Amino acid sequence: MSKNTLLTMSLSLSALLVACSSPSGITTQSRDFKSPTQWSNVHLNAKETEQLDNSIVAVDDWLRNFEDIKLIRLTEKSLSKNFQLKASAIDVAIAEQRLNISESTDWPALDLAFSGQRRKSIVSGNELYTTDYDLSLNLSYELDLWGKLSDQQQQDQLDYLAANLRYEDDKNNLVASVASAWFNLQEAQQLALLFEERARNLEHNLELIQASYRLGLNQALDIYLSQNDVSRELARVEEQRQKVLENKRSLEILLGDFPSSAITAPSELPRINSKIATGLPSDLLTRRKDIQALWYELLALDAGLAVAHKQRFPRIALSASTGTSAPDLSDLLDADALAWSLLGNVTTPLFDAGRLSSLEETARLQVVKQEQNYLLAVHNAFAEVENAISNRAALLSRYHYFVDARENALEAESLSFNQYMKGIVSYSAVLESQRRAFDAQTNVIQLTNQLLQNRIQLHIALGGSFEEVAEQSNTAAINQSDTDA
């Protein structure tokens, strides 16, 4: 072979290898994303006991900050019985099986084939019966010259990692949902108790007003207005009791229980004053499981683009077979009768009306789309933290204002009724003071819950985990699905 021929072959092979190099649809905008150096709203909180701290790493095991043992037990129960989490665990198992399928291409496929046949033929007017048995062992293997099979494996590996991260994120969200439902139930119960107490007070006031009316000290209009207040408050009590039942059923569904509204909870919300460690913004993308999952899904689609690109190049496969054919079963295993064959084949697409190039372009566009989804999720993640921080500052200010308003309104309510009974003020003043007292008490309860919900949201937005609470493996939900049924 001449030197010119060798040079031509070498250049041709080099050009082919360059053409078969894996393309990528991911831009530097995603790979080199720059996080801010600090949270913009971290110093908004004025109360010393509620300040946020970004000078230390965000703390995991956040659930224990609520100091509620029953809540921790409920989250442990939900992690083993929640239906949606079990479905998420099955997604991980499915991704693992897909990975096993793609990894099987590292090995040759070996098949054993057996067939038997009996034929009838007519020879010179005579019936002739023949029997044939065939036994063969076939081996096939595709050479991964261009890295197409390894790219497919990489795609399935990344999908498997993403599924695991999705499962971990689902666990975090489930714990947050249980905690949120737990405090919503306590708020509903505390409001129900407030409405019941208020109804009793109004009934007592009505009795006093009726007694004064019989003595000629009050007008009939005052009785009608007071009766209206009592009826309205009793209706509000019934409505709130229904909300309590609905909150109980919502929590029971999260726990994987039948929604019988049998669960019990404290009737007073806790007040948590401990600081929340926000850590640094640069830590967020590595702490958020959902962001990590989106990144791996983006990388998986990018590996799929490489697979689609390499579908356009030659496929090289080897196959070998050995076997025998005999009229009797006993002769099939005769080593002297064995025949074998070895075959190598190369197939390459020549014309497909643009099908393969369209498949590659489709794969590229999927990468571009997923990258935009990833960038949107990243920006939303930072916005969630910033919104939770600024919202906490607003909630704290409102809470302290309404605590002061509640104390003043309760004093004003008591004073106005006493003055009304003495004939100093009209009943309309009593109604206004009662409305203000009721609004202030309701707002304090609701804001207490909103602060708890904000704490949960902030921990989740920061990528907080609860590792000491839940030590189940990724397949715990699957393993317990039968025993919990």
TrEMBL record:
One of its GO terms (molecular function) is efflux transmembrane transporter activity. Gene3D superfamilies: Outer membrane efflux proteins (OEP). Residues 185-254 form a coiled coil. It is found in: Cell outer membrane. Its main location: membrane. Transmembrane segments: none annotated. One of its GO terms (cellular component) is cell outer membrane. It holds the Pfam family OEP. Residues 1-19 form the signal peptide. It is a lipid-anchor. SUPFAM superfamilies: Outer membrane efflux proteins (OEP). The lineage of its organism: Bacteria, Pseudomonadati, Pseudomonadota, Gammaproteobacteria, Alteromonadales. Keywords: Coiled coil, Lipoprotein, Membrane, Palmitate, Signal, Transmembrane, Transmembrane beta strand. Belongs to the outer membrane factor (OMF) (TC 1.B.17) family. This is Efflux transporter, outer membrane factor (OMF) lipoprotein, NodT family.
